[in-house]
Design a protein that fits this description.
The chain has about 250 residues and is mostly beta strands. The chain has helices at about 15, 45, and strands at about 25-40, 55, 70-80, 90-105, 110-120, 130, 135-140, 150-160, 160-170, 175-185, 190-205, 210, 215-220, 235-250.
């Protein structure tokens, strides 16, 4: 844990914020577009971003099989609190470092928000946020019935360093998933958030699946706290465009 020290929109709430059977508290609703970059990074360095009781648990299958770290770039179009008012200004950009892990004793798997690069000053609900400057430059094009293609450029400035992910992609027909996920903080694995989401995902690069619809890929990681993970032994496993993501957030 040394790496972490110091540190209803028009869709209608009646559809997406139905009250669960268990005792939960409704927190907020969001609508995003997202970009995902999946990596394998140095496991010894990654261990510092997990609770002392947990070990890394790379994805075992799918388009990102073998991944032990995901950079999730988020362009938040609207964030509403439980009363439907804009939250944190309503619109902003951020990037989450997501680490899949498991309890070393029980084998129970968890997904951790190890770091959140955010424009806000607070530590956030996971207590892992650091104030950062995040830029997103996106261009899209399409004709007739063809899927949208485009280019993403994401930049994160923090701690005197810069992180950049950029690529051109030829779009495909996205997959849709409606589901639920539970995320935790490595600072206290008992602190959780429940996300009930509806999303579209277009995997444009996947080593495990042999998908490659990208060009001009740039990966530059020069943020000091990430140097040990990105020590030139890392490998890019995949990239995905998520043009639609909406969810409700619940507190257990």
């Amino acid at each position: 844990m040394s790496a972490l020290k110091g540190t209803a929109v028009a869709l209608g709430l009646s559809t997406f914020a139905s009250v669960p059977a268990t005792a939960e508290t409704f927190d907020s609703t969001i609508a995003d577009t997202r970009t995902l970059a999946a990596f394998t990074v140095n496991e010894d360095a990654l261990a510092a971003w997990l609770p002392d009781t947990h070990v890394s648990a790379p994805y075992g299958s799918g388009s990102f099989a073998g991944t032990n770290l995901v950079m999730m770039f988020i362009d938040r179009m609207l964030h509403q609190n439980a009363e439907g008012d804009p939250k944190n200004g309503g619109a902003y950009r951020m990037m989450a470092l997501i680490v899949p892990g498991k309890d070393a004793a029980t084998g129970e798997k968890s997904t951790f928000i190890a770091r959140l690069y955010s424009p806000g000053e607070g530590a956030g609900p996971y207590k892992t946020a650091v104030q950062s400057t995040i830029r997103h430059d996106v261009s899209l094009r399409g004709t007739g019935t063809e899927p949208l293609s485009g280019r993403h450029v994401w930049q994160v400035e923090q701690g005197g360093g810069m992180l950049e992910i950029s690529f051109d992609y030829a779009g495909g027909v996205p997959s849709r998933k409606v589901g639920e996920s539970v995320l935790s903080t490595p600072l206290d694995p008992t602190v959780k958030r429940i996300y009930r989401y509806d999303q579209l995902t277009d995997v444009v690069l996947s080593g495990p699946k042999g998908i490659d619809r990208v060009n001009n890929v740039t990966v530059r990681v020069e943020i000091p706290e990430l140097a040990e993970m990105f020590d030139r032994s890392e490998a890019l496993i995949g990239l995905a465009d998520r043009p639609f993501y909406t969810r409700t957030t619940w507190k257990p």
